[in-house]
Amino acid sequence: MNKKILVILLVSLVVGIAGYNLVVNAINMRSRDINYKESSYNISTDSNFFGEVENQALVDLPEDYEAELSLKGFKFVAETSDLELYVKENYFNLAIYDKASGYLWYSVNPNYLQYMLSGTSRFFVESGVIIEYYNMDNIAVEDNKSYVSGPKFNVSKTYEYNDSGLVAHIDFEDLGITFDVVVSIEEDRLRVSLPIETLVEEDVEKTMLNLDGTTSQKITQYRLKSVYLFPYFGSNNYEINGYSLVPDGSGALIRYNEEVSSTAYIKRIYGADEGVNRYREENATYYIREEMPASMPIFGVNHGYQQAAFLAVVSEGDGYSEIHSYPYGYNSYRFNTTFAKFIVRERLTVQTSSNSNDSFTMIGKDPYPSNFTVDYYFLNNEEASYSGMAKKYREILEIDNISNGYKTNITLIGQDFKNGLFGKDYVEMTTYEDVMNIVKDLNETSNKSLELIYQAWNKGGLYGNTPFSPKISSNLGSSSDFEEMNQYLNDLGINIFYLNNPIISYTQGLGKKVISKPTLSVFATNEARTSLYRTTYYLSPDNVSDSILKYDDNYQKLGINALALQSVGDSLFTYRYSSKDYYRDQMISILQNELNELNSYNLALYQPNSYLWKYLDNYLNTPVESNKYAYVTDSIPFIQLVLVGSVNLSSNYINYVSDYDLLSQRLVEYGVNPAFLLTQESTHNLRFTNSEFVYTSEYSLWKDTILEVDEHVSEALSLVNGLKMINHRYVDNGVSETTYENGIIIYVNYNSEDIVVNSVLTIPSNGYKVVSP
Amino acid sequence: MKTKKLLLILVLLLNFILLSVTFSVKVEGASAYYTYTLNRKGELSETNEAYEAVEMIRRLSDGSTLSGAKDLFIDSDDYMYVADTGNKRVVILNENQEVLFSFGSETLIKPLGIFVVDDLIYVADYGLGQVNSDIGSIYIYKFDKTKTVLEEAITLDRVYQTPSSPILEKENLIYRPTKIAVDNNHTMYIVNEGTTSGVLMVNDKNRFIDYFASNSFSLNFWDRLERIIYQNNENVKMTKNIPTPVYNVSLDPKGYFYTVTQNNSENISGDNLKKINIGGVNFFDNDMYVYNDIVDSWAGHQENIYAVSSNGFLFEYDNLGNLLFAWGGKGVGNDKLGLFMSASSLAVDSNNNIYVIDDNSSRNAIHIFRETPFAAKIHEALDLYNNAKYVESIEVWEEVLRYNSMLDIAYRGIGLGYMMNEDYETALEYFTISRDQEQYSEAYWEIRNISLIDNMDKIIYLVVFIIILLNVLLYVNRRTKVFSFATDVKQKVMKYPKANQFFYMFHFLKNPADACYGVKQQKRSTMLSAWIILGLLFILYIVGLVYTGFIFNDIVIEETILVKEAFKIIIPILIFIVSNYLISSLMEGEGTFKAVFINTVGALMPILVIYPFLIIISNFITLNEAFLYNFGMFGMIIWAVILLYFNIKETHNYSVGQTFVNIFVSLIFMLVIIIILLIVYLMITQVSSFVSDLIKEVILRE
To answer: Which of B26, B86, B32, B38 is nearest to B330 (CA)?
Structure first.
């Protein structure tokens, strides 16, 4: 009996186990039916994230330019070795003859009459000078305009000629506004300038007829608001091959085509002025990413293919100017044009109390204290392209350092704090030892060239008392740990930048040099990214170098010779400090001065405006695309064409990017180094701290991606260390060609199939090819 | 200068730093909009891009443009059907958005809705919309996909007008169909304009079956109050008591319906989007996160549902109605990919690409969004999670964490996976990060179970040993009085009056009446002791905030302000005491202020004694034994209340009824005091802000 029971038990056991396994396997097999199709839709190569294939259509050159000009009523003014200047007096139109290319540039499209414009539309196109003004009786009206052409505006002009050009005295008699416009040519440059001291604004007396038949004298005051000088210079439309260059993001082209656009590119150079306008927080559009500002005071126009082009630089008054580019059909104008508009005065809102309804507006009494000058540099033949424009701009900025080439840029967050029950609760994310370990780890896997930025390495972190005095934080290690870390990095030749923010304060404490706006309200901003402080405040820009040089000894003792400065690069505003008003132009020179004094340190700045590029060693958060507005046809690497080879450019943190492959390709095309934001500890520890907005940074999770991106990009870029980028163009749909100084060419193919270039070279799909001469 | 600085200090002392406002990252990415998900507080928080805008098609491949197109449908073969309302036609596009056919311009008047099932194209045509004349119709076209010539491929099969039904005739229904959905039996679900009873359910032969999926009408408390008050007042116009009509309806492959309703409320939550089965039951929360101008929804392949609002915000929900992603929005100024002027409809193809129509007259475009690898990973992980395949999901969730390390659901998923693998310690870690108290409790139970089982023998030995030791000590003490020094110390301490008074407070626990009498007549305790007790209570409260076990602790330390908590505890007690004293003196009570103070604090003694134990045990019990903790808290509070009652009765020598009246009136008077304090506080802040503004202006104008 026992044996039988035993056998039955055994058999049932075996059957049970077998059956269980079968069932489990069956379930698992069903689970493999779930198919996760990855999206097959790739970004189309037609997108304006890329450039368009070069259009090689040529533009007609005038056969007999002198006859054409005299037919149109232009008369000769002056000549240099490269240019000839002509003027047509009645509407103050200019024409430039570029000898080397044989092309004629007009200050208004020569065929504009056939577009049957009338009224103010016509005056806007054909006037050489247009102004906007305020009527002091009602400054709420913003767009009163007056034109040089158009008899009812009663504008008189007198011209004085000289060897290099002319001076035009413009008198808006009805408004009592007069100023001079100086036009001169020198070698290959046309200079158009409005010297501000020639501006006179007088009261206007008018005889008014009263209702009861008597007359009385009424005195009105008009104030100049803004000036357009030759806004349609170089304008044309889709009938010829051409494009406009705007300084949008990394650079953007608006090619002449027939797509009617209801919006246009209108951007203040160097971004909006926070001192005059509300600060950047716009609650209604919280869901839209902040747009990249125009960080260079330039624009350009190219006609034809390798024939004629110009680069225009706003050399004076750039802090108060806007770049406008009107695509086809904007405001019913049927040609494209690009120009700079000078802002002479702005309207300020003064808050008299913290109640937002208690405010009044006023306009500045004096015009902005700066001349306004636009320099047009004419390029011809092979130089007539956006690459040639970038080369010209590089010469103008006098950028001639040599960068140290490809490096993976890693920003490490040291610590942050959250609000504990009894004060600040510090959270350590990457100690000094961790820094060494991460570097060691990355170096072991392959020969990395690294560059570090250490954020919040100091006592109090980044969000504590600013500007901070450089002391070691005991939370992150002892001073010997710090020394060891520095020594280790020095031995490996790795540059480490220590982060500081000398221009932002998180509190409005005593003794802090917090500035105020010209309207006397405290200058609050949300420029610095923090999840805990609702508003932050600006400190005086004058103090940037002092706040660092004050502790020069400490920095030397700690062995720190490289600094990354936040907010200094892209902040530009009008402010008031110590009862004195400082305007944007003045802030530009102050900042340049401050950075000059810091030349003993290596400096890295975040998205700096072009006036600081001379003082840079590293350009961080480089834009690698434009804002991709609908009317923009190409994104181009204009910033890169100017800076690659002289300054180390690194990208935005790749942590937040969703498509690494596309970005790696873009980095190869634009010659930009990859950048990552890392911590040793897991990122969720940053919850409730200032850096809560960083939602991913843990090193162990990112290591593989860093190595992957690094591998893809370094293979190409380490071959062009320290070399300038001299040409860039698209040779096929989604295939770009970048040429470097010594003849090395890099082709990048964004398509998902192989493309053959020049009928011999095959560029692999989603890959690139480096061709040495 | 010095006075100025002093004034500045004064001014600045009046400022506070505000907390917890999340700011967005200044990072230039590929798309113009931010993508959000919901954080654990139910607020939008930024996350990686889930869907990237890749294209905006304005001009179709045949050179025409859309004009105010109001509906879009994609069938299982990825053919796209557009109801091009302004051009009175239907356009069929292939998967590369090339125009295949364009038809209907002779027959259609205002095609607003379109649905395709089994190669039958159903078009809901609104008609001319003129009163008492043309009514709308449903046009049904047969689509032969093998043919390439328009006349052969598209044939008009049937035209249906008002469905036949005595009910509809009685109601004088004017047939103006705006949207349509059709199930596999070819039963049509038609949204008729102005019909508040819901969606019309019409069979294949155009016979009306029933109303379906109507919205409910609910009033909140204040509205009801309003209606009662204004009931008979003809001058006040109230909105009618009828539900909002359904705006749009769609189907998913499993047979669930999704209705979209618009209303005027300002909320970001409500039941504008409903997932309904054939019985009309809504599977979504009636309070889910949804905007009130939602216009269309589409059921995806993995049981997700997509929705779009007229301002161009796009949403993706999981199958339970939890918001996964929100992105897009209204464009401002310049045209940018992914921002809308006015969105009217959306559809998703088999590759999870999203197509949305912008029907604004200056746009008239089809936007295309593609799923990023991040969104694909989340979908994969959620699928495994929803099918309870927790172990397989660990790896996938870890990849998700690389994209966004703040996602609670990823930590929960990984924790569940480890739980399944019986790695309870690791699971506990993950549940702590995701603040999942329930799952933590389960994992903790397992750990405790295991350690109890492992150490059961040791525990028994320990307990036995302690019992024996105690018995031995007692026996020894009885014989030799070795431990009498403890009682000596106690007697010495009690000689000090302060200590005596302090320990007298504990008397309240044993004999409240006696203690009250002792305080009142014999001055057995002082205010100082009462303050000390209050201080101890406050410290105990703070200890409780920090050290209560994870499972029972709902407090977020980082968001707790110490001063606020102090106010929450101490101030009400003090106000009650003051209020009670005042009322009692009016009601001829015998207690002095001191007596009232001390006796009220005495009533809180149970808390002082019991709460520490509760804090300790909360760290060692799970939700299964939650009754212990809850009962303890409850009992402690009840004891305190009862003590309070007795104390008041004894202190003032009241009868039972009088005591109740006293307590009730004291509470009401407390409210009065609080209101007075608030008013004083507001006045002070007003004055101080005026003064600070004045000073600021004077200083800054220098």
So the answer is: B32
Model confidence band, residue A20 (pLDDT cutoffs 50, 70, 90) = low
Residue found by looking up tokens 């999870």 in the block:
B352
The pLDDT of residue A188 is above 70:
yes
Mean pLDDT of chain A: 86
For the cut 80, the answer to whether the pLDDT of residue A17 exceeds it is no
Which chain B residue has the Cα nearest residue A662?
B30
Contacts of B335 in chain A (CB under 8 A): 261, 263, 629-631
Closest CA to B344 of B82, B49, B36: B82
- pLDDT over 50 (residue B128): yes
Contacts of residue B379 in chain A, CB cutoff 8 Å? 36
Which of B362, B57, B356, B337 has its CA nearest to residue A260? B362
CB contact under 8 A, A353 and B21: no
* pLDDT band of B697, cuts 50, 70, 90: low
A285 to chain B: which residues are within 8 Å by CB?
329, 332
Which run of H or of E encompasses A619?
Answer: strand A618-620
* Mutate: best of A658, A664, A687, A689, partner B, most B CBs <10 A: A658
Local confidence band at B696 (pLDDT 50, 70, 90 cut-offs): low
Which pLDDT does position B17 carry in this prediction? 30
- Cα–Cα distance for residue pair A435/B385, rounded to 1 Å: 36
8 Å CB contact of A421 and B546: yes
Helix (H, G, I), strand (E, B) or coil at A105: strand
Element (H, E) at B546: helix B527-547
Residue B433 tokens, joined: 């990060």
Q: Which of B109-118, B220-229, B494-503, B642-651 has the highest mean pLDDT?
A: B109-118
Considering only the beta carbons, identify the residue of A522, A662, A687 that sits closest to B406: A687
- A219-271 per-position pLDDT tens digit: 888 899 999 999 999 998 888 999 999 999 999 999 998 888 888 999 999 98
Q: Do B29 and A657 touch (CB under 8 A)?
A: yes
Neighbours of A156 (CB within 10 A): 11
Looking at CA atoms only, how far is residue A665 from chain B in angstroms? 14
How remote is the C-alpha of A366 from its chain's centroid?
Answer: 30
- Comparing CA positions, the residue from A84, A92, A79, A90 lying closest to residue A65 is A84
Give residue B14's pLDDT. 39
Q: Give B-chain residues touching A705 at CB under 8 angstroms.
A: 402
**What's the CA gap between A376 and A339, in Å, rounded?**
11
CA distance, residue B414 to nearest chain A CA (Å): 15
> Does B406 reach chain A within 8 Å, measured CB to CB?
yes
Q: What residues of chain A lie within 8 A of the CB of B350, using their CB?
A: 37
Query: What is the average per-residue pLDDT within B555-564?
Result: 80
Running DSSP on this structure, what letter comes out for residue A755? E
To probe the interface with A, which of B5, B52, B383, B405 has the most A CB atoms within 10 Å? B405
Cβ–Cβ contact B12 with A under 8 A: yes
Q: In chain B, which among 428-447 make CB contacts under 8 A with chain A? A: 433
Distance of CA A173 to the CA centre of its chain: 40
- How far apart, in whole angstroms, are the C-alpha atoms of residue A510 and residue A600? 31
What gap in Å lies between CA B199 and CA A275, rounded to an integer?
56
The tokens describing A541, both together, are: 């820009």
A696/B25 touch (CB, cutoff 8 Å), yes or no: no
Q: How far apart are CA A723 and CA A743, in angstroms?
A: 10
Rounded to two decimals, what is the model's pTM? 0.83
Strand (E) or helix (H) holding A450: strand A450-455
User: In this structure, which amino acid lies at residue A463?
Assistant: Y
| Assembly ipTM | 0.79
Residue B111's nearest CA partner among B65, B71, B67 is: B71
pLDDT over 60 (residue B25): no
